[in-house]
Specification:
The complex is a heterodimer.
Chain A lengths: L1 H9 L1 H8 L6 H26 L8 H4 L3 H21 L1 H5 L2 H26 L7 H27 L10
Chain B lengths: L1 H10 L1 H8 L3 H27 L8 H5 L2 H21 L2 H4 L2 H29 L9 H23 L6
Helix pairs in contact in B: 2-5, 3-5, 3-8, 7-8
Classes of the chains: A mainly alpha, B mainly alpha.
Chain lengths: 165, 161
């Protein structure tokens, strides 16, 4: 693993992201990751609260249009997340919380697919009881992802191969 | 004047709490990100509807999500004031902070104009019909303003005095 950290940190993209004084380097990637989070988790919140029975006047099948927003947010964050990882690979990969965050995201995405399948099985216009339970779990999962992500900055032990956090 | 405000904020109990409580700052930051997601998940979703996205959703029904966004904004107002009280110098002498305040003000003025002039007319527009120009403008300004707020917030760290 140690040699992987060394070689990743030595790449020119990693070095540029980490050391460039330009706002288009690290700061811009952070902005992408934050705005992506807001739209991704936000669209999930809107969908989940409607599935839970909030504001029943919103047609569930019409609300599906917002899945596009969810996926744009997801891919913006997958992309910016890879860049953040590349900038500080040792920092993320030596922190157990980083793997917890990834597992929570995988769980949340799986839940989202499952909720959709449940809604579709009922004709796509109303939410069955199981979908409601899963929507509550989904909300809890995204809150956990936010906390895990934010706490990464406070639980790291190594910033780079040569420097502690 | 700024130094007087700084000294006052620093002496407040919420500032003292956030400086000394061990996990206080990280937990408040997480809440700040959660509030942001609640805001964008409801107000942002509504803004896209104003722009003409997902027109089949009745505006009044989607508008019922707005209280969730307002509670998100309230969480962020409280946690935000706590951050500023804890380390006022990091904000009062930071130009990214003033950009952030400016974008929040733009969003605030926009929403007042929206409710004063556009909202009632929009409620009379049936689902499926393209929203009037004034509604599109309100939605667009709101989205740009909130993206500006988030970007300026993220830049705070890089413009520290």
């Amino acid at each position: 693993m140690e040699s992987l950290y060394v070689s990743l940190e030595a790449t020119s993209l990693s070095t540029w992201l980490r050391e460039s004084p330009s706002l288009w380097a690290f700061p811009f990637v952070l902005i992408l990751h934050t705005v992506g989070l807001a739209f991704f988790v936000g669209a999930n919140v809107a969908w989940d609260v409607r599935v839970l029975g909030f504001s029943m006047g919103i047609p569930l099948d019409a609300l599906r249009r917002y899945f596009v927003v969810m996926w744009v947010g997801f891919w913006v964050n997958a992309f910016s997340g890879v860049l953040l990882l590349l900038a500080y690979p040792t920092k993320a990969l030596t922190n157990p919380l980083f793997y917890t965050k990834l597992a929570l995201i995988a769980f949340g995405v799986a839940l989202a697919f499952r909720i959709r399948r449940e809604v579709d099985r009922f004709g796509g216009t109303e939410a069955p009881p199981l979908a409601r339970t899963l929507a509550a779990a989904s909300l809890a999962c995204w809150i956990a992802v936010i906390f895990a992500g934010r706490l990464l900055a406070y639980t790291c032990t190594r910033l780079t191969v040569d420097f502690p956090c | 004047v700024l130094h007087a405000i700084e000294a006052y904020l620093r002496s407040t109990p919420q500032g003292e709490f956030l400086r000394t409580a061990m996990w206080g700052w990280p937990i408040f930051e997480s809440l700040h990100f959660l509030g942001m997601s609640l805001l964008l998940g409801t107000v942002g979703v509504f803004d896209l509807r104003l722009l003409g996205f997902a027109r089949r959703i009745p505006v009044a029904a989607l508008h019922r999500l707005i209280p969730i966004g307002i509670s998100g904004f309230a969480i962020n107002l409280v946690t935000g004031i706590c951050f500023i009280s804890a380390t006022p110098d990091q904000y009062l002498f930071n130009k990214a902070f003033y950009w952030k305040v400016t974008f929040i003000t733009i969003a605030g003025i926009n929403v007042m104009i929206f409710y004063a002039r556009t909202f009632r007319r929009l409620l009379e527009t049936p689902p499926g019909v393209p929203p009037p120009i004034s509604a599109r403008l309100a939605g667009g300004v709101s989205l740009v303003a909130w993206i500006g707020v988030m970007s300026a917030g993220r830049l705070l760290t890089f413009f520290r005095p």
